[in-house]
């Protein structure tokens, strides 16, 4: 471990917190200092189940983590409806904020969080792990190469999984008072983020949901699709489908005028130590249209750490720069989060309006 690592506090014992405990342990510049739950019994149970070090401070309230003067940064895997209150409170107490996605119920709430972070000079980042995988950087090398890839024309993505019956009864992602955005917030966030990434984080000009929306009896979105458009004449389009009702799939296709890029596991790599994608350059149909002139090239990208640990390492590095060297927070990450939230809001508005076209 590096000297003077960033000391993390985790607020909440959601299932995803197990993954981040491991990530913090693997990151060379971070350490888990504190864990807080709504009861000390739950905190102790989580610590035992995940074999946390006895040096980790256990608290029976979220506020106690924020009051700990040794905590540099907090990770908040709380229900979306609680994000604004606790993220703002953390920022005001000088804690750097790593926030699970979706970042907020809407952009207005996220703005409250970002304003508090900016006012306190703390780093903000959301928990979109795939952006930190080296495969993502390698794919961008190709997408940004106008000679090999050409102009961006089309993007398509699906993000789905079929959970157990218990999920629909107990999970916070289907409870309207906790995570009202449902599959759109949990899974659509990835698709929207991938589209923005491919488009150089340029906001689309408009968005429209498609009329295949499925709601639970409580009104939470279980499945939906949408189209995003770029340009005054909708020259570039992106389509996604997200669902809690289908087999696990995480596909992404990015198509340019000269080439196309495809992968089947863009949010969670199939294997932890490496990840791949296919790039097909300059393909045409051969004579009689009985085949292609070019075969897809498989590109394999190794990863020295799991992508969640790479995210922690990146976040901790930014925090160290602020804490130890007086640097300013990196603005890229809150800007990415806000753009993703704005597009998600537009899709949600379109759903509420009967799939009307919403201009951004």
Mean of pLDDT: 96
Helix content: 25-40%
Give the second-level CATH assignment, the architecture of the largest domain: 2-Layer Sandwich
Please count the helical segments: 10
InterPro entries: Gfo/Idh/MocA-like_OxRdtase_N, GFO_IDH_MocA-like_dom, NAD(P)-bd_dom_sf
Family: Belongs to the Gfo/Idh/MocA family.
GO molecular function, one term: nucleotide binding
Pfam families: GFO_IDH_MocA, GFO_IDH_MocA_C3
Question: How would you characterize the overall build of this protein?
Answer:
The protein has helices spanning 15-26, 40-49, 62-67, 83-92, 107-120, 134-143, 165-170, 182-198, 307-325, 332-352; strands at residues 6-11, 30-36, 57-59, 73-76, 96-99, 124-126, 152-160, 206-209, 214-215, 221-230, 236-243, 249-256, 259-263, 274-281, 297-302, 358-359. Strands 7, 8, 9, 10, 11, 12, 13, 14, 15 and 16 form a ten-stranded mixed β-sheet that branches. It has a six-stranded parallel β-sheet with strand order 3-2-1-4-5-6, with helices on both faces. The model has no long low-confidence stretch (mean pLDDT 96). It has two domains: 6-129 and 307-329, NAD(P)-binding Rossmann-like Domain (Rossmann fold, 3-Layer(aba) Sandwich); 133-306 and 341-359, Dihydrodipicolinate Reductase, domain 2, CATH 3.30.360. Strand 2 (30-36), helix 2 (40-49) and strand 3 form a beta-alpha-beta unit. Helix 1 crosses helix 9 (307-325). The protein has ten helices and 16 strands. With 360 residues, the chain is α/β, with parallel strands linked by helices. It is globular. Belongs to the Gfo/Idh/MocA family. Residues 6-125 form the Gfo/Idh/MocA-like oxidoreductase N-terminal domain. One of its GO terms (molecular function) is nucleotide binding.
């Amino acid at each position: 471990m590096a000297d003077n690592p960033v000391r993390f506090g985790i607020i909440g014992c959601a299932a995803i917190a197990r993954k981040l405990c491991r990530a913090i342990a693997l990151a060379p510049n971070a350490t888990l200092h504190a864990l807080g739950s709504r009861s000390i019994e739950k905190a102790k149970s989580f610590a035992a189940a995940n074999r946390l070090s006895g040096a980790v401070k256990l608290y029976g309230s979220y506020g106690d983590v924020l009051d700990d003067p040794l905590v540099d940064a907090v990770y908040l895997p709380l229900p979306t409806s609680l994000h604004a209150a606790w993220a703002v409170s953390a920022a005001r107490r000088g804690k750097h904020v790593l926030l699970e996605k979706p970042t907020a119920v809407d952009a207005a709430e996220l703005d409250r969080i970002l304003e508090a972070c900016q006012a306190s000079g703390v780093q903000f980042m959301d928990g979109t792990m795939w952006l930190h995988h080296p495969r993502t950087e390698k794919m961008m090398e190709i997408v940004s190469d106008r000679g090999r890839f050409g102009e961006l024309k089309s993007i398509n993505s699906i993000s789905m999984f079929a959970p157990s019956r218990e999920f629909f009864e107990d999970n916070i992602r289907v409870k309207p008072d906790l995570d009202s955005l449902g599959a759109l917030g949990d899974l659509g966030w990835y698709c929207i983020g991938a589209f923005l990434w491919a488009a150089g984080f340029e906001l689309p000009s408009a968005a429209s949901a498609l009329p295949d929306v499925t709601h639970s009896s409580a009104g939470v979105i279980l499945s939906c699709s949408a189209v995003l458009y770029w340009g005054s004449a909708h020259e570039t389009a992106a389509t996604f489908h997200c669902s809690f009702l289908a087999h696990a799939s995480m596909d992404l296709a990015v198509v340019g005028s000269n080439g196309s890029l495809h992968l089947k596991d863009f949010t969670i790599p199939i294997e932890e130590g490496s990840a791949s994608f296919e790039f097909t350059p300059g393909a045409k149909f051969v004579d009689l249209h009985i085949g292609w002139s070019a075969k897809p090239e498989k590109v394999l990208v190794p990863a020295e750490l799991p992508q969640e640990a790479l995210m922690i390492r990146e976040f901790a590095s930014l925090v160290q720069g602020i804490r130890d060297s007086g640097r300013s927070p990196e603005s890229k990450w809150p800007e990415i989060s806000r753009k993703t939230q704005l597009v998600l809001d537009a899709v949600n508005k379109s759903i509420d309006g009967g799939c009307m076209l919403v201009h951004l």
